[in-house]
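Title: Comparing notes on inverse folding

I've been comparing how different people in this forum approach sequence design from structure. To keep things fair, I'm posting one structure and asking everyone to reply with a full sequence. Here's the target:
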């Protein structure tokens, strides 16, 4: 199956069933967007790149919160990244959430 041909809503439904290929396609589509939006919150680009990977690896549990009729996938992902889920690692190796 060519997962890259699937629409975002279908990918979200597949991710809810732990489909890692669907998650990979979603990452390819939106990691740049999430990264650029989060850059406005966090200035350390290297920490942010690591955090974006961590963020997407945790996306498997998030499709339950997505409401297809209320928002686009891109809007939902960026809102979660900035307000709730994006983890920033401070210089001591401890994780903290982004300031809101």
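Reply #1:
Here's my take.
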């Amino acid at each position: 199956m060519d997962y890259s041909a699937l629409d975002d809503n279908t990918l979200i439904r597949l991710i809810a069933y732990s489909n890692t290929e669907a998650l990979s396609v979603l990452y390819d589509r939106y990691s740049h967007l999430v990264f650029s939006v989060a850059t406005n919150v966090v200035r350390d680009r290297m920490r942010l790149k690591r955090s974006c990977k961590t963020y997407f690896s945790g996306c498997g549990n998030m499709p339950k919160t997505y409401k297809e009729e209320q928002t686009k996938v891109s809007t939902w992902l960026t809102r979660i990244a900035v307000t709730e889920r994006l983890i920033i690692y401070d210089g001591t190796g401890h994780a903290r959430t982004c300031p809101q």
